[in-house]
Amino acid sequence: MSADMLRGDAVRTQARSGLLTGPTCGLAPGYLQANLVIVPRDLAFEFLLFCQRNPKPCPILDVLDPGTWQPRVVAKDADIRTDLPRYRVYERGVLVEEPSDIVRRWRDDLVTFLLGCSFSFEAAMQRAALPVRHIEEGRNVPMYRTNIGCTPAHPFAGPLVVTMRPLTPSQAIEAAVITSRFPQAHGSPVHFGDPQAIGIADLTRPDFGEAVTVRAGEVPVFWACGVTPQAVVMEAKPEIAITHSPGCMFVTDRLAGQ
Amino acid sequence: MSADMLRGDAVRTQARSGLLTGPTCGLAPGYLQANLVIVPRDLAFEFLLFCQRNPKPCPILDVLDPGTWQPRVVAKDADIRTDLPRYRVYERGVLVEEPSDIVRRWRDDLVTFLLGCSFSFEAAMQRAALPVRHIEEGRNVPMYRTNIGCTPAHPFAGPLVVTMRPLTPSQAIEAAVITSRFPQAHGSPVHFGDPQAIGIADLTRPDFGEAVTVRAGEVPVFWACGVTPQAVVMEAKPEIAITHSPGCMFVTDRLAGQ
Q: Which of A38, B28, B45, B122 is placed for a possible disulfide with A242 were both Cys, Cβ 3.0 to 4.6 Å?
């Protein structure tokens, strides 16, 4: 990676100028990255309530005032409308556009939610010499729909989506302890072992992302995933909703673990 | 205290039947007690945002769906309209009534917030043999307006209100560690020592509650207080707002520290 991608603000500047339009995984190492969800104000209470009731899949980093595009807390001088590499715009649950900025789409009643992302705890796992298989194999993390229901906040409801990382039992225990220190990045795992116990039929066929190798002596370990709130928002079919494009996160100025 | 006041549900039953119309301090020891704030749905997003931005004065125990009076999480079979000993009803910021139930006042658009209360961490301080002066002296805890501004969520804004407990330096350190384990009951202190550093002119004249003795060798230690969100709601002058009457909290089924 070039030296100009080492800090959160540098990555945002590259995204703003249109030079960066792809995934942020591995950029600005150590900086908290965030899932983006934007909904109209008339659904903002219910969506904030959904996040508050489901903190593992929806750890709140910041919520902006209606109509505001400048984060107050996690990133100075940022513009939520331009500083992500790519966005997804949904109308009544249907993906209509995948632009590199949303300036044209902005409205005074839009409310921006920045939610934690697992990239942060993966860096901590790597520092502890724990394997992060999808990074080793150069793939997107495998994600699965489970049969674990989120606590609903009408009209927001749906199943928990999880990510999976294969680990040996002793590594899994260490990973549980380490990731528990990152409640703003989904925290400790929600399950390990038998995938069917949480409604996953086949580990080799993830619902999102790509399958990774589970080696002999390893068990699959599952963490709550930031795709959960996105799936739940799409399912509620709001008039308009905007998210980041998969893997193209908002990079903050905040160091993970702060 | 009679044996029938040892559990959260027993206290709620007494309040519901009208037998208990006074403070809940000391009742159902070990059970989490909650501040009550009820606002109309059209302000619920902004108030939830205020709580999320100011977790020390406003630790969220539960937020009910609009129109719902049964807590989902913290108390089984409870009725928020009857199970507190006494309520305060405000219209456009003016106290208009202090009834023992709010059945008559209920509306389908009212949203109930249950916020943590310092009673829980005081029990933990007492178990650690730390003095809780206002309990020793049989008074209400002294509360003060500070010059520390809360992070606003328009139209909700205002100063942090704090409680004060006098402790020796070594006790203050122990109390900081102990109360940090109760983030749902305001957590660790926000200040100790010089009251003027946070805008308190005279410790002997609290803005709410009663003054307590500060002994030689003790320093005042200040914690965020649940009166903060109430003051902020009154200041915003909503069409209607309902809170508990001072000291007459909602007693949950949840043990403190869980």
A: A38
Domain assignment present for B235: no
Cβ under 8 Å to A: B residues 111-150: 111
Question: Which alpha helices (DSSP H) does A54-168 contain, by range?
Answer: 119-127, 133-136
Quote the ipTM score. 0.77
Q: Residue A28, by phi and psi: left (phi above 0), alpha (psi -120 to 50) or beta? A: left
Count of C-beta atoms within a 10 Å radius of residue A109: 12
Contact B153 A65 (CB under 8 A): yes
Indicate whether A134 and A158 sit together in one domain: yes
The 10s digit of each residue's pLDDT in B38-86 is 999 999 999 999 999 999 999 999 999 999 999 988 998 999 999 999 9
Tell me whether residue B123 is in a domain: no
Asked if B82 and B185 sit in the same domain, the reply is: no
What is the tens place of the pLDDT at every residue in B102-153?
Answer: 999 999 999 999 999 888 788 889 989 999 999 899 888 999 999 999 999 9
Domain co-membership, B216 together with B248:
no
Give the chain B residue whose CA is nearest to the CA of A40: B45
Q: Are A48 and A157 in contact (CB under 8 A)?
A: no
When scoring B39, B49, B51 by the number of chain A Cβ atoms within 10 A, the one with the most, hence best to mutate, is B49
Same-domain pairing of B172 and B81: no
